[in-house]
Structures
1.
Amino acid sequence: MPYPRTARTTITATLIATLAALGFTLAVFSNSDASAADADADAAKGQQVYQIYCITCHGATGKGDGPVGKTLTPPPRDFSVGDFKFGGTSQEIFDTISNGAASKGGSPLMAPWGAVIPEQDRWDLVAYIRTLKQ
Ligand code: HEC
């Protein structure tokens, strides 16, 4: 037996308290981060990121008619309409961009961008996509 009983109990209690505190902190941070990042999102910055990664499929005006996009079935979403198959809240659009459409049962050609594009840039993309609605 490596530790006397009381020491073990203390270690266990400390561990549980630490994990609980960590879980609580993460929960609070992930909520406030998301809404703050959404509120601070910069559509002009989003446009720059869009032109690098998204324009070949989604097209210059977001109609899904980019050179690659117009060859795809299902086609990329037409952002000028502003209807979203996988949810239209900022958080849902952010999640689709981050995790890919396949994570919600859609096309794997709409790739997960979470590992490629930094988080704030993905919020900026959400803001830019909203400006494309006509
Ligand atoms: C290789 C082509 C391709 C590229 C590049 C691409 N997409 Fe898509 N995107 C698609 C396709 C195809 C769909 C439709 C998926 C479906 O209906 O299952 C889609 C759908 C979407 C949707 C709509 C999801 C919904 O709920 O309707 C969003 C938002 C989106 N893409 C954002 C982006 C952003 C932002 C980028 C750049 C970071 C990007 N896409 C890059 C092909 C692409």
Note: The pocket of heme C is lined by residues 53-54, 56-58, 68-69, 72, 74, 76-77, 84-87, 93, 96-97, 101, 106-107, 109-110, 113, 117, 125, 129 (CB under 6 Å).
2.
Amino acid sequence: MDRKELINEINLQKWIFAKTYAKTAPHEYITRNSNPNFFDMVCELIDKEGYIKKWKDGTEYKYLKIGDYKYWHFDIILNREKIKYIYGKGYKIPENLLEIIKKRDKSCVYCHKVLEELPHAIGTPHNKATVEHTDDESVKNPEEWNVFMCCGSCNSSRQKGNNDWDTWFNSKYCKENGITKLGVAQVVKNYWKIRNKKTE
Ligand SMILES: [Zn+2]
């Protein structure tokens, strides 16, 4: 079953809204007896491909994002919660992913300027925290490894150029601001490694 078929099948299940958590943590669930084979298949997939995260009460669960929902399971219950997105210019990013990268990248991944939130700023101030998409794939499929936070200046400069990194590092902007390929944050270097492996 590919992802598309899986999403169709998942949406055919009779999801029950968890009334007790309506206000604190809205989600819905199915129980194993409603469709044991399907239930086991989804749970196995979560165990295999999911990521571990602590829930509000400190319990750790494995989560897996499938379509517009994230899924987790325990005992005979499979839960899902709709992923909330934050919208920017021409992109959307899951709310929890934005939180993660904001915590990680407190300063610009390129010039290391300390970032400020500035949600009401007009235009893009030089120190404004902005979401940096590394490539077209990261716009479609943003994940921890392919999106960063960078400052308004670096983001504008990156958009002006093209996606070719070497061209950007050789630009007047990078030279004037002392931005070099070796000097960028480790997350960017990790991104290049992963990207290269994927395209090999
Ligand atoms: Zn910067």
Note: The longest helix spans residues 36-49.
